[in-house]
What we know:
The complex is a heterodimer. Chain A is an all-alpha fold. Helix content of chain A is 83%, strand content 0%. Chain A is elongated. In chain B, strand 4, helix 5 (103-110) and strand 5 (116-119) form a beta-alpha-beta unit. A 5-stranded parallel beta sheet of chain B has the order 2-1-3-4-5. Chain B is built from 6 helices and 5 strands; from the N terminus they run H-E-H-E-H-E-H-E-H-E-H. The longest helix of chain B has 13 residues, at 16-28. Chain B is of the alpha/beta class. In chain B, helix 3 packs parallel to helix 4. Chain A binds chain B through residues 10-13, 17, 20-21, 24-25, 28, 50, 53-54, 56-58, 60-61, 63, and chain B through 15-18, 20-21, 24-25, 28, 67, 69, 98, 120-121, 123-124.
Amino acid sequence: MLDINELKENYLMDESSMIHLLNLFLESTKTDFKLLKDAFEIKDETSIHKYAHKLKSGAAYFYLKEISLLFEKIQNQSKSKNFEIIASLIKECESQLEIIFKQINKYQN
Amino acid sequence: MTLSDEKKIMLIDDHDISLFVTQHILKQLGFSSNSILLPSGFSALNYIKENVDNISNLPDYIFLDINMPIVDGWNFLKQFEKIKPTLSKKINIYILSGQESSPEFNEFKKNGTVEQFFTKPLKITDLQFLKAQN
């Protein structure tokens, strides 16, 4: 779960900076998650690792520990090309991202 | 203008969120006017090479990500060590990475090339030392 007040406090952000940060998160996460799925479709383990790392790094800035851990697992599994496990991890990430995006949209409205 | 404003800081990171948060925190600490944001080790090396003699353009501090395309953080540091003797001022380099610290860091630290390793996300308290130095 996102704790936007905690983020504001820790990064000393006012409302407009926080909205900007949330928009950055939405844009970059949607783009990178699509690229991760595209890389998975063609079984490109190097790109899977690259985008999982980028997504993990972005999620870490929002203290999203659960999904960060899932992206880290994808990174690790990409090294050993365990595509079946990666498929189920991507599904888990997708469900979690849906909840996070809803929360952000609700906050922004 | 505060003394902190006169210090130039370079942020090298390919992640927009990391750049935005780090720059925002620096602004909150008073380092507002002189940030140089670069998306790769490659562009940072080019910037430094073009400004070896230009004290006012060279940064005082660099915050360096490790996992970047083309020239990653460790390769940046290897190249930086070659340019370092020709630079017209001392540049303090801090690693800011999503990874945990590593043996490479200890090597560069031993050589005096890097100062400290911070794990993302950066916290306000991580940067208090900048205040103390200024």
